[in-house]
Specification:
The chain is α/β, with parallel strands linked by helices and 228 residues long. It has helices at 6-13, 17-24, 28-37, 57-65, 78-88, 124-137, 155-171, 176-189, 195-205, and strands spanning 47-51, 70-75, 93-97, 110-116, 138-149, 208-216, 219-225. Strand 4, helix 6 and strand 5 (138-149) form a beta-alpha-beta unit. Bound molecules: S-adenosylmethionine.
Length: 228
């Protein structure tokens, strides 16, 4: 198994990502739709940050849901940002190549920060620093909502998650080499943490209204709000 960085992995996957993700992530659209349904009605976001935007599938959904908003699409991989740019255009989106482990964001600058299946790429300590950084980048009353892959509370639950995921992938006709690619990627670049720990970290950095809005197998949607 050859070691590649997360950046190289997504650079290589950029052009095929949209074909692959729908058959590899169960209920991919549903998790993003649910995220949008739960953005509080009083928020009316004007400036939105998408962390780990990838090819821009969530970015597009955010643009559609909030037609008056401007989105900053941030990712580590330049190749995938280029695909995102082709998919989402220049008019209401700006693009930032940054690493979650060294985010440079202006304070009090976003009403809403979203993320889909991206934050598990950094280790647990970096996640906690990232949560702090997101809190600082939000305006008072701003919302952070993200869906991601989470570890089970016990090794048994986590193992069962992996089995259920494999059954889903088999039913979708995912070829063995593609499954193998995800498993190698998971071994090299994924740091799944539990729902309990991540909700605790969100509280610890100062978020309020922390809640779990949706869950299916590994995939879990959390929300949190900055005090007004
Ligand atoms: C599974 S994709 C998800 C893309 C998109 N959000 C979606 O839901 O389809 C994960 C994305 O996170 C980005 N990513 C991974 N590690 C990152 C890091 N340390 N900093 C910034 N982006 C990162 C990858 O480049 C990739 O585009």
């Amino acid at each position: 198994m050859s070691e590649v960085s997360t950046e190289e992995f997504y650079d290589d996957l950029a052009s095929s990502y949209n074909d692959i993700i729908y058959r590899c992530a169960p209920r991919y659209e549903e998790m993003q739709q649910t995220m949008m349904q739960y953005v509080p009605g009083d928020l009316q976001p004007q400036r939105i940050l998408d962390l780990g935007c990838g090819t821009g599938n969530l970015t597009l959904r955010v643009l559609e849901t909030f037609p008056g908003a401007h989105v900053v699409a941030l990712d580590l991989s330049q190749e995938i940002l280029d695909v995102c740019r082709r998919q989402c255009g220049e008019q209401r989106v700006s693009y930032l190549q940054q690493d979650f482990s060294d985010l440079q964001l202006s304070a009090n600058s976003f009403d809403l920060v979203v993320s889909s299946i991206a934050i598990h790429h950094v280790d647990d300590l970096t996640k906690q620093v990232l949560f702090q950084c997101v809190l600082e980048s939000l305006k008072p009353g701003g919302v952070f909502t993200f869906v991601d892959q989470f570890r089970g509370e016990t090794p048994g639950i986590y193992q069962q998650h992996m089995k259920v995921w494999k059954t889903f992938a088999d039913a979708k006709g995912v070829p063995p080499e593609e499954w193998q690619m995800w498993m190698e990627h998971q071994e090299q670049h994924d740091f799944h943490a539990t729902v309990h720990d991540q909700m605790k970290w969100l509280h610890e950095v100062g978020f309020i209204e922390v809640d779990c809005l949706w869950k299916h197998v590994l995939w879990t949607l959390l929300t949190a709000r900055k005090r007004t």
